[in-house]
Amino acid sequence: MPSGRFAPSPTGDLHLGNLRTALVAWLRARTTGGTFAVRMEDLDTATARRDLGARQLDQLRAIGVDWDGPIVWQSDRRHAYDAAIASLVEAGLTYPCYCSRREIREAAAAPHGALPGGAYPGTCRSLTPGQRAERQAAGRPPALRLRAEGAVVTFDDLVVGTVTGAVDDLVLRRNDGTPAYNLAVVVDDAWQAIDEVVRGDDLLDSTPRQVHLAGLLGLHVPRYAHVPLVLGPTGARLAKRDGAVTLDDLAVQGQDADAVRTRLAVSLGLARPGEVPTTADLLERFDLAQVPRSAWTVAAADL
Ligand code: GLU
Fold first, then answer.
1. How far does residue 275's CA lie from ligand 1's centre (Å)?
2. The domain spanning residue 48 has which CATH number?
3. 254-278 per-position pLDDT tens digit
4. Which residues does ligand 1 sit against, CB inside 6 Å?
C-alpha cells in the first residue's frame, strides 16, 4: 500500500499554495488506497513553533485533509539525524565548511559547469589542515558538508517526467548545529516508509541531492511527484504579503473553509466554478496525471 505525506514547516498559517499542495498529496494517497502522514519540519527553532504547527493541523482538517498515525515533529528526532550524519562522517564523505553566507552567495553566483544555480562550488573541500586550523582559530563555527564527488542523479518524476541533476556539496549540518533540511527529509521519508512524495515544484532542484543522499545512507528512495506552485499576481510564488491567502484572511472576506476547498478544487480541474464538490466527488475525479502542468496564478482581484 503506497504511503504519502505532507511535510510543512510550522512557521505560520498555511496559505492557498500550501493548502493546494496538501490537498493534492492527500487526494493522491487516498485515491491509491494509501496511508497519509503529516510531518512537522520544525528543526529551525528561530522560525518554527509547535503552536504554529497545531494551527496548521487545524487548517488541514478544515479543508478535509486527515492523516494516519501520530504527527512526527522533527525536533523530536535529532538523534536519528545525528546518527545519519555520523555514518557519513565515518565513511569520509564530509568536510567542514567555514564559508560565510556572503562568501557562499558570491561563490554560488559564478557559473560552475553542470551544477544548478545557487549550488555550492566546493570552496572549502580541499582546504589544507593548516588552512582549516587557521579558520578554526578565527572562531567561526563550521557547517558540515557532503562530498558529493560530482554525482549526477536521474529520476522519474510522476508529474515532471525524467529529471537529471548534478549534486553539489550540500550542507548536512548547519553551523549552528542544526541538521539540514535535505538530510532530515531523507532520513524521515525512509523512516516513515513514505513511498510517494507529492510536493511543490520549488523543491525539484533539491531532489537530486535527496536521491543521492538516500543512496549513500542505504535508504529507500521514494517516487516523486512535483506539482506546480501557486503564484501571486506579480508572478512570484504566492506569499502572505500578496493579500488574503490564509483561511483566517479568507474567512474575513466571507470565504469559509469549504469555499476555499472548492476554489482549490476548481484550480485543479476537479470542480466547475459555482459547484460545491463533496469529498467523495473529489476522490472520484482526482487523477495525478490530470493535475494542471502549469502554475495556478491568483489574480489580485481574488486576494
Ligand atoms: N518542509 C518543506 C517546506 O515546507 C517541505 C519538505 C518536503 O515536502 O520535502 O517547504
1. 31
2. 3.40.50.620
3. 999 999 999 999 999 999 988 999 9
4. 7-9, 41, 185, 199, 203
